[in-house]
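Allow me, if you will, to draw on your knowledge of protein folds for a short while. A protein sequence and the structure tokens that stand for its backbone fold form the material at issue. I would ask you to consider whether the tokens describe a fold that such a sequence might reasonably adopt. Thank you for your consideration; the sequence and its tokens are set out here:
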Amino acid sequence: MEEKKPRITAGSKSGGGAPRTAAKNSPKKAGAAKSSAPRRTKKQQGDMIFALDIGTRTVVGILAQRDGDGYKLIDMETRAHESRSMTDGQIEDIDAVAAVVKSVRSELEKRQSVKLQRVCVAAAGRALRTLRHKSDFDVSGRRVISAEDIRAAELEAVRSAEEQFTGENGNGSFYCVGHSVISLELDGYKVSKPEGHRGNTLTTEVIAAFLPAYVVESLCAAVDAAGLETAGLTLEPIAAINAVVPKELRLINIVMCDIGAGTSDVAASRDGSIVAYGMATVAGDEITESLMKQLLVDFSEAERIKTSAEPQTEYTDILFMKHTITAEQVSELLRPAAEQLAQAIADEILAANGGAPQAVFLVGGGSRLSGLPEMVAQRLGIPPQRVAAGTREMIRGISAPKNIEIGAEHATPIGIAITSSDGVKYDFTTITLNGRKIRALDTRRLTVFELCSLGGIKPEQLMARSGKALGFTLDGERQLLRGTPSVPAEMTLNGKPCSLNTPVRKGDEVRVTPAIPGEDAASLLSDHYDMAGMFTAEITADGKRIPAGDFLLVDGAPVTADADIENGSSIVHIKRGTYSDILAELGLDPERALVNGAAVEPSAAPADGDELTIAPEPAESTEAPGTPVVPGAPVAPEAPMETETPPAQVAPETHPEENGVPIVFNGMPVVFPAKPGNQPIFLDILAAFADDPTELLARSATVTINGKTARLNEVIHSGDEIVIE
């Protein structure tokens, strides 16, 4: 990443390709066939390192080789983006970035006569997250601890950190893009180099860095579109600190800040390890944009003015007015934005390092901004001489030909090359899922289930549920309809059946047919009742308003039209379609029934507003039979005639059962009041305990007479046990 737009530099033309030679003039023989120059065959990449720094403003490509304990730079090519196709280190236009990557690759291949296929890259982004994590590794079975054991323990710690991070932040949404070992402990004691020691448990503490999956995927998509294979991935601050702060300096609390165009990347070292990473989204672009607004120029013109090394610069604004500005004037215009950048860098350093460090190295194109080191030092509260701005001397561990100029802006691309062959690499595993290539880092123990997650197949598509059951009550009886079962997912690995727990490896082909969920159970009222001719009415019977008709009571509401049955519904069929049904249910004498004052035909249907009454029984004669007259007997004087008392006013002699019917209601003996000769029915019981019997039924789970489901017109007898709960 770089803030300054570097000039395009050609690398060493003798670093692997034959030098060009001038053609000699020689006389042509008559009739001689034209000769053509032999075509040079491109050599394979071999162990040559190809590193790309895909920055916000430019793409830098580097070819390097390992040279003893260091690295040798073979060639370097820099190309600027033709449009603002990246923002804050993240790719916005994949095709535009891929085109620049292609041009960098093509130029390096042409100059070095090499076929480049594998490339190492570094990721950046405003959503960087880190996690410190410890992991134990069993070494009890080893004779001595080897370098392979230490590497395996490190990789296990990274895998464990990734599992913890994934569990806390959601599966498949982030990639682990880099890590550093903070410390090693053998059986609880810190060791700097456990190789050759013996013990039981090797504990590795790492700091792992994570970026959203779409950031990494877009980076790799641009590399793919350029015809290259991503051979390794790291994080930009990890790469930069590997080039600037070698291991022998990491005992000192040093913070490196790589100021590019889109981000300012921070990495901190202490006690021999890299202990923290950070990333601020304030960088060189904000400086350029401040100049745009003040000088009224476009971005490219503002960038040219900002990076000009001349004492004064001529420019044309967007109104086509020509101006001249001095370097001092530019510096003054940039000062407010520079102060904001210094504050953002200082804040990120303090957050990542946990306080002010002993020293700060500023690299990247933005590090050359005038006065920036002093501003950062002031905000950190450390002496100005403890903040060093980018110089060639800061880029350590690599040698370069004289014709290749290395500057502070090359810390990240050189660091990518160094990191690619030093430490645990983040190689990619590419697996085909349903014809689509899925990329996963080798730090995962990848299974078919995890692959599906990376491929956007949701867990519910793999383990579909059966259809939901439908439960309801039908005239007091519980009904349960089952949903249909699901059709299981089908999955194959390289053409053979597999399971979700089957591990997958690089190059595998997985096909997954999602499961088909079962259908929920459903039922209509008409599936259980004949809905034709159903109706409702409300009449007055013996002074009380009661519902009448032939209808369904669904959760207490009268229903006559067909409808879906809802889960948990209570359905009761009310049969009061004729006066015969009503009279029988109420236990009334049909011969004395009157509707609206007139005799009623029992088969007649009730209508809204009808009034049902019962005519009184005819009065019986109370005159005693005459006393026979005996001849010759004296005639008794005639007693005065007594006035007959109407039957309604005569208090008849009663017995206990004549005042009511003894029953057991919800476990308690009670006498249900009833008129003499009038046998009560269950509806009378309901009416006695609730103003709205239908609502009481809808709310009750148990409605029984002598342990059996009660019917509304069921006659109540002495001793019946009734339960309404």
